[in-house]
Amino acid sequence: MYKIATWNVNSLRVRLPRVLAWLDENKPDVLALQETKITDADFPLEAIQQAGYQAVFSGQKTYNGVAILSRNKASDITTDLLEFEDPQRRVLAAVIDNIRILDLYIPNGESVGSEKYQYKLNWLSKLDHFLKHELKKHPKIIVLGDFNIAPADIDVHDPKRWHERIMCSTPEREAFKAMLNIGFHDAFRELHPAEKTFSWWDYRTYGFSQNLGLRIDHILASDALISHCKKAYVDTALRKEERPSDHAPVVVELKL
DNA sequence: ATGGTTGCAACGCAA
Description:
27% strand; DNA-binding; 6 helices
């Protein structure tokens, strides 16, 4: 099985030992990272190469930052959405093993109605154009990352509490549906139609211990790939350990 | 739980 995973690590500098341990234990073919919070000059390439992986990355100081680790070589690297010059490093696309991988760190949006929320909605509209463009060039696409969108109430521990709040608002959910409408499938939800499973738990409410989570990290497979997805799951093992990321890895296994 | 914790970097900002 070909294993592809996504993980918002919330600082690669802090989480590097965890990432290396996770690679060693799970041996994914591709691991997409978000919130690396590290410049390209400081990227820990040697440690990752010693673990048997190659890496491409697009980082910045302090905030954001994305990277793709893979067994095999990445080509056709893209770091920006179409016609959208953004200093925030949130996009990384590459072809690996003849599959187009799109690693996304979609803006958080802070709160509905805020300036950052407008930035998020604008970003999502740029993403829509980008995805349509990418699909024309590459039928076999995996879009994965931290979407900062819980697609439906089943993806939320307490839908009433989160009603029309950030990550759950109707415009955000509509943007997510639009991605599915142009030819993508939410791999976890396709394989587990009724499972209430989360990928992120707020540090501030000690959310993990009570499972007060949201499913906001996703792996979308294009029409050409969804039938190859045989397994999808969230790996919560590391979230239970000392000093975890607030997100857990999400994994799909494909029979190619 | 309308508060709280974490990471960065050095104070408040972002999540």
